[in-house]
Amino acid sequence: MAFITERLREIKRRRHRKAKLAKLKAKYLAANSKADKEKFAAKIKRISFYMELPTAK
User: Fold this and answer.
1) Which residues contact 44 (CB under 8 A, 6 or more apart)?
2) Considering the domain boundaries, does residue 54 fall inside one?
3) Does the model's pTM come out above 0.85?
4) What is the pLDDT of residues 32-52, one digit of tens each?
Protein backbone atom coordinates (compact mmCIF):
# COMPACT_ATOMS: atom_id res chain seq x y z
CA MET A 1 0.00 0.00 0.00
CA ALA A 2 2.12 2.85 -1.29
CA PHE A 3 -0.53 5.55 -1.10
CA ILE A 4 -3.13 6.73 1.37
CA THR A 5 -6.69 6.65 0.15
CA GLU A 6 -9.35 9.14 1.15
CA ARG A 7 -10.97 6.49 3.35
CA LEU A 8 -7.76 6.02 5.35
CA ARG A 9 -7.45 9.79 5.78
CA GLU A 10 -11.02 9.90 7.05
CA ILE A 11 -10.35 7.11 9.55
CA LYS A 12 -7.20 8.87 10.75
CA ARG A 13 -9.13 12.13 11.25
CA ARG A 14 -11.82 10.35 13.27
CA ARG A 15 -9.30 8.58 15.48
CA HIS A 16 -7.40 11.81 16.09
CA ARG A 17 -10.63 13.66 16.91
CA LYS A 18 -11.68 10.92 19.33
CA ALA A 19 -8.34 11.01 21.13
CA LYS A 20 -8.38 14.80 21.32
CA LEU A 21 -11.91 14.81 22.75
CA ALA A 22 -10.90 12.26 25.38
CA LYS A 23 -8.04 14.52 26.50
CA LEU A 24 -10.29 17.57 26.58
CA LYS A 25 -12.93 15.69 28.60
CA ALA A 26 -10.31 14.70 31.17
CA LYS A 27 -9.10 18.31 31.42
CA TYR A 28 -12.70 19.54 31.73
CA LEU A 29 -13.42 17.15 34.60
CA ALA A 30 -10.15 18.04 36.34
CA ALA A 31 -10.65 21.81 36.02
CA ASN A 32 -11.36 23.59 39.29
CA SER A 33 -12.36 27.09 38.24
CA LYS A 34 -15.44 27.98 36.26
CA ALA A 35 -13.34 29.90 33.72
CA ASP A 36 -11.26 26.81 32.95
CA LYS A 37 -14.37 24.67 32.58
CA GLU A 38 -15.88 27.19 30.16
CA LYS A 39 -12.65 27.27 28.14
CA PHE A 40 -12.56 23.47 27.77
CA ALA A 41 -16.31 23.33 27.10
CA ALA A 42 -15.90 25.79 24.23
CA LYS A 43 -13.11 23.67 22.72
CA ILE A 44 -15.21 20.51 23.03
CA LYS A 45 -18.19 22.18 21.37
CA ARG A 46 -15.99 23.53 18.57
CA ILE A 47 -14.73 20.04 17.74
CA SER A 48 -17.98 18.14 18.25
CA PHE A 49 -21.06 20.37 18.38
CA TYR A 50 -23.54 17.65 19.38
CA MET A 51 -21.48 16.09 22.16
CA GLU A 52 -22.87 16.57 25.64
CA LEU A 53 -20.46 17.88 28.23
CA PRO A 54 -19.28 15.26 30.71
CA THR A 55 -20.40 15.46 34.32
CA ALA A 56 -18.31 14.60 37.34
CA LYS A 57 -19.33 11.40 39.09
Assistant:
1) 21, 24, 25, 28, 51, 53
2) no
3) no
4) 999 999 999 999 999 998 888
